[in-house]
Amino acid sequence: MLDNLIRNSLEAMPGGGLLTIVAVREEGQVRLKVSDTGVGIPVESRPHLYEPFNTTKSKGLGLGLAYCKRAVDLHGGKITVMSEEGRGTTFEIILPTNHVREDVPF
Question: What fold, for 2-96?
Answer without folding.
Answer: Heat Shock Protein 90 (3.30.565)
